[in-house]
Design the sequence.
């Protein structure tokens, strides 16, 4: 069986896996409305978990890490949700609010400079809306892969991550996935197994690292881009945006715009898991006790097919441009997303446009 592993040129995967920086038209900052909807949808579970943590131990300083924070307005949204929950809880309990220390984590290529430039606005909002009654709130960056250790032992009270853990540490070694860039109906059976094995390996490494870094009784809330078994009769394949992107790339190969070998050697370092797969890894790793697991759907905006296609293409470009440009070349990226906006827009005429997410609340045993 022919096995391939995706090359990423002269760069390691962690060097090209990053969201588009800045605040331009193709930036992640201006094309992350869907991720914002997901964070807001998961807000009740996040706030419920942080209130339970605070009410049980009343730490003078709560140390929080947000894994895969990216940049833009969404970066500060989970922090604000934590502040709101702690403020309300401390007022009900007639206690002085704790100090909040937040570490924002992402890979070194993340646009941390944009985050730093936004800090004065965040602190101004905190002062105006909380009237100086909450805080202080200290925010710092912690660059590095969350699949390894980042913090001293027993130093974190709370860990949060939203829409980051579907990115794998590497592309798994898979059978030749001819004409595809991810799991598809035409993928050989071994492709799904390879992706699932890589997800289990990576997620286990994540949990073990956080277990060492968190205090006993510390809590974690993870929101993961997933898939719904009800929409997956084979339990091995769920139609995804990557399938349509792969079709578009095949068209470009037939037209001579992309080399066939380039397409055949490319697979996305990405896996959308079933809720049961997420729970299985947590229970097998044994460091955390699951408090709550919920799956929910978030719909794309209602608009005509051309506008919807254009917006989806821009959202996808904001998160994949760096890795695609590294593999296929900068000069072809504009053409890719122009074509994809048309293809996905036409598909959206008949597709409901819902994405599945899993949110898991857990406590360190």
Sequence:
């Amino acid at each position: 069986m022919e096995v391939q592993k995706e090359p990423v040129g002269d760069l390691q995967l962690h060097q090209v896996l990053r969201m588009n920086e800045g605040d331009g038209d193709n930036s992640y900052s201006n094309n992350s409305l869907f991720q914002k909807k997901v964070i807001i949808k998961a807000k009740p579970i996040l706030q419920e978990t942080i209130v339970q943590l605070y009410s049980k131990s009343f730490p003078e300083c709560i140390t929080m890490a947000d894994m895969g924070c990216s940049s833009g307005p969404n970066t500060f949204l989970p922090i604000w949700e934590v502040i709101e929950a702690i403020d309300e809880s401390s007022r009900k309990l007639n206690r002085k609010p704790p100090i909040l220390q937040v570490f924002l984590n992402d890979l070194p290529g993340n646009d941390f400079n944009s985050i730093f430039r936004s800090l004065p606005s965040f602190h101004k909002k905190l002062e105006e809306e909380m009237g100086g009654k909450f805080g202080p709130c200290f925010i710092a960056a912690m660059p590095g892969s969350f699949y390894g250790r980042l913090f001293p032992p027993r130093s974190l009270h709370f860990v949060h991550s939203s829409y980051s853990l579907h990115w794998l540490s590497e592309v798994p070694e898979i059978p030749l996935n001819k004409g595809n860039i991810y799991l598809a109906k035409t993928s050989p059976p071994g492709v799904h197994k390879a992706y699932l094995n890589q997800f289990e390996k990576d997620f286990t490494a994540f949990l073990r690292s956080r277990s060492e870094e968190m205090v006993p009784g510390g809590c974690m809330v993870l929101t993961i881009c997933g898939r719904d078994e009800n929409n997956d009769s084979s339990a091995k394949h769920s139609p995804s945006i990557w399938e349509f992107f792969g079709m578009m790339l095949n068209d470009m190969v037939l037209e001579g715009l992309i080399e066939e070998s380039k397409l055949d050697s490319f697979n996305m370092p990405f896996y959308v898991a079933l809720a049961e797969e997420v729970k299985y890894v947590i229970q097998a790793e044994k460091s955390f006790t699951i408090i709550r697991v919920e799956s929910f759907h978030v719909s794309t905006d209602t608009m005509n097919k051309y506008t919807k296609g254009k917006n989806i293409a821009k959202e996808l470009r904001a998160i994949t441009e760096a890795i695609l440009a590294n593999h296929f070349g900068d000069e072809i990226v504009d053409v890719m997303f122009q074509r994809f906006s048309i293809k996905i827009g036409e598909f959206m005429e008949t597709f409901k446009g819902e994405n599945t997410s899993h949110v898991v609340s857990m406590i360190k045993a």
